[in-house]
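Q: I'm building a small set of examples for a reading group on sequence design. Run inverse folding on the following structure and report the sequence directly after it, with nothing in between.
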């Protein structure tokens, strides 16, 4: 590395840490994003507000009620006595669901007849409604299984049970096991994506603004009359922010492990290698933005214009397979998609290079192409 490149790097580091706005952009956004996605963005439903309507008032219905009370997923906040009160609880948003036991519930159970429990769910939030309905169905299912087991035992010991009970008929019991995220915490899914967003946004914005700032204050022309070559200027301008991106990545990973206890099951070396491949794209895009922007405000707006589509089409929040087919094909050109898959694979699954190599190759190819084209344009603009 020539002395001229080292001079540009030292100059860029001093200038970045001297200016308060740039100094804040280096480390504040990563921590803010991590805290927001770690605490605020939470799709888990751990305490659904429920109202209980018992129109049977029998030991059987009270037994079902105890199942809901014993569940950690529900809090019973009311016992409406009429249809109008049920509607009010759901319409006002105070209750997430209403569980109603119809008259004849116990009689049908004792006679071995088919019976049902009505579950009314507030569907304003579709994700929350689906989870709440699933939890309620699970509670009712466990109660039904307990009833069948109790009746089968009574039949075997010779007690009188009304209705057809056939303990000799085999039953199918489903036992599920969740891989990679056993507790189904949305935090474990979103926080690794913050690593991707931070590296992309910080390096993209800082690279573009650092070069445009030289144009604004008139020092770009002074640099170009010195013996510094365009390629040396480009390396000196981008390398410090590549290091900043890697430092922010390490900072977020450490805080995610210590503060949010997000598992990291993969290799840190693979994460570092993937980050370097991704930096080729983000730094190259920052160079390109600097060639089409005249002011730092324009560079910032162009950065967000470039970043938002990449962010939305990365699979960070919305599954790519749920997007229209045409959009799914477009995402293959999005480097953020591949980096997102690599980071989540390392955090949650502990995937190795044998699984992640297609994403790594795609990331490296896109990075080399973007950096080459951006460097060529940057070189021509300087000349």
């Amino acid at each position: 590395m020539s002395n001229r490149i080292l001079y540009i790097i030292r100059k860029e580091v001093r200038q970045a840490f001297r200016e308060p706005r740039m100094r804040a952009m280096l480390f504040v956004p990563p921590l803010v994003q991590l805290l927001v996605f770690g605490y605020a963005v939470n799709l888990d439903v751990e305490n659904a507000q429920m109202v209980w309507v018992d129109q049977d008032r029998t030991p059987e219905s009270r037994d079902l009620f105890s199942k809901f009370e014993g569940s950690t997923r529900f809090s019973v906040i009311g016992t409406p006595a009429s249809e109008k009160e049920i509607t009010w609880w759901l319409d006002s948003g105070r209750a997430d669901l209403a569980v109603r036991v119809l008259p004849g519930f116990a009689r049908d159970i004792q006679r071995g007849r088919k019976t049902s429990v009505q579950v009314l769910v507030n569907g304003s939030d579709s994700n929350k409604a689906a989870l709440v309905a699933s939890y309620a169905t699970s509670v009712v299912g466990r109660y039904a299984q307990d009833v069948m087991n109790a009746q089968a035992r009574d039949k075997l010991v010779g007690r009188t049970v009304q209705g057809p009970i056939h303990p000799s008929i085999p039953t199918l019991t489903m036992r599920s096991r969740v891989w990679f995220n056993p507790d189904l915490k949305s935090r474990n899914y979103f926080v690794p994506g913050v690593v991707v967003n931070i590296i992309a946004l910080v390096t993209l914005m800082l690279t573009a603004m650092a070069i445009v700032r030289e144009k604004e204050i008139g020092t770009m022309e002074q640099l170009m009359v010195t013996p510094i070559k365009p390629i040396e200027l480009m390396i000196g301008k981008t390398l410090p922010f590549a290091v900043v991106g890697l430092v922010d990545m390490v900072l977020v990973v450490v805080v995610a492990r210590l503060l949010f206890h997000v598992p990291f099951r993969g290799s840190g070396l693979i994460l570092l290698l993937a980050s370097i491949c991704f930096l080729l794209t983000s730094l190259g895009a920052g160079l390109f933005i600097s060639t089409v922007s005249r002011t730092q405000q324009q560079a910032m707006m162009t950065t967000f214009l470039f970043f938002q589509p990449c962010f939305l089409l990365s699979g960070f929040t919305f599954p790519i397979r749920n997007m229209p087919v045409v959009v799914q094909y477009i995402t293959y050109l999005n480097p953020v998609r591949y980096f997102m898959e690599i980071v989540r694979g390392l955090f949650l699954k502990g995937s190795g290079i044998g699984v992640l190599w297609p994403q790594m190759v795609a990331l490296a190819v896109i990075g080399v192409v973007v950096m080459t084209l951006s460097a060529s344009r940057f070189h021509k603009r300087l000349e």
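Residues 267 and 306 are 30 Å apart (CA to CA).
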